[in-house]
Amino acid sequence: MKIILSFLLTIIFSALPGHAKEAAVRMLVKRGFPPDYAEKLAVLQKRYPKWHFEPLLTGKLNSKYTWNYILHMETDDSPARSLVSGNPAFSAYFHPSDTKEYDSKCRRASRQAAAYFLDPRNFLNERDIFQFRDLRDPGIIKEHHVASALKDTFMANNKLENGIYYSRYFCILGKKLNIDPLFLASRVRQEQGLAGTPLISGECGSFLEELFMDEPQVKFNIFFVLSAEFRKKRSELRRMNGLYNFFNIKASGNGKFTIYLNAMREAAAGTPEMAAQWGSPRWDKKWKALYGGALKISSRYIANYQNTLYLQKWNVDFRSRTPDGKSRNFWGQYMQHIGAAFSESRNVYQALKKHQRLKAPHRFLIPVYPGMPENPAPDPANGKCPYYRKFE
User: Fold this and answer.
1) Residue 300 pLDDT more than 50?
2) Helix, coil or strand: residue 389
3) What number is the average pLDDT over the span 332-353?
4) What pTM did the predictor assign?
């Protein structure tokens, strides 16, 4: 009832002449947003009356969760927690003293870079705000919206082994698991790129075997090559052919071999709860990998207080827990890359804009941290990184 009332008030205020923005600002402040948030959100509220903004007050959930504490936990507490691509185009975001290569040749992000992407005030515009959009199924996304998000990818106008188009299958999964299908499609596009990675080739086992054989301890150790352990490892890798992992679940570790191996082991473990129906839990069909991956995203993230792109990178909601009740904060995040939520949200925005769905009802959950600096954290690249240009 409270949400409905505030939604109606939003529409009323947006229709009033003269002091409509001031009224919207007051309403947003009353809801819990600081004035600098409210000023920017009021502009969006006037343009999109059906949008609903809700603050996530981290300090109310746990008084320890201040800006400085969260920034420390996302950076200095663990060097690999916040990474950035090692491509020189991202050099402004590199940590000044840590030159180590982490997962997939990524570099550790600087504290300043993490602060920029962590500060929600930098992204309260009509495009970048979609990283705060509630990812539970809003019931407004249709198959043609998803098809638009899949344009130019290996999934465009293609069918799975079950005869269903990718775009249609994402909608089926979304309805069944209460996840926005546009998010599912955008996540696979984000993880697999336009052409797909070895993780969905069906031949990742052979790919891993090649990587394994190239490792120095294998190439130059004749005793290991003749050992039973060596034969066992090659056999394990070959059995991973015919498996798929679209969402790159568990694709982490130190070095390419470990990253792909962990992802394929996840595909081999598959979805135990579907073993009886499938005949095996393994993700040995593309549609099974999509279903199993979406199910894990639903249970581990969407239903566990990580129901926005932002929260899947910056897991700052104190209520996010493991099955045995331990905190998942900070370490329990879907992605390590500091700009992942930013870039993925722009894919969502473009698909919604193309089909005139921006004015539909969208709910945004936006964190507010106690002790934030007076001004938004600056961009270390000063807007010059081609991949993270500001929206004007």
Assistant:
1) yes
2) coil
3) 92
4) 0.84
pLDDT above 90: residue 19:
no
Could you identify the residue written with the tokens 């394929």? 264
pLDDT above 90 covers a percentage of the chain that reads 77
CB 93 within 8 A of CB 381: yes
Map residue 322 onto helix, strand or coil.
coil
Do residues 264 and 250 touch, judged by C-beta distance below 8 A?
no
Which has the closest alpha carbon to 146: 163, 161, 158, 162?
Answer: 158
When computed from its CA atoms, the radius of gyration of the chain, rounded to whole angstroms, is: 22
269: closest CA among 297, 288, 253? 288
Q: Is a pLDDT exceeding 60 seen at residue 13? A: no
**How high is the pLDDT of residue 6?**
52
Secondary structure (3-state) at 259: helix
Helix (H, G, I), strand (E, B) or coil at 74: helix
Residue that is written with structure tokens 């996304």 in the block: 141
Residues 184, 334 contacting (CB under 8 angstroms) = no
Mean pLDDT of the chain: 91
DSSP 130-171: GGGB--S--S---HHHHHHHTTTSTTTT-B-TTS-BHHHHHH
CA geometry: angle 61, 66, 67, nearest 5 deg: 130
Pairing, β 52-57 against β 363-368: parallel
Q: How far apart are CA 126 and CA 255, in angstroms?
A: 38
Token couple for 330: 């900070």
Residue 16: per-residue pLDDT: 45
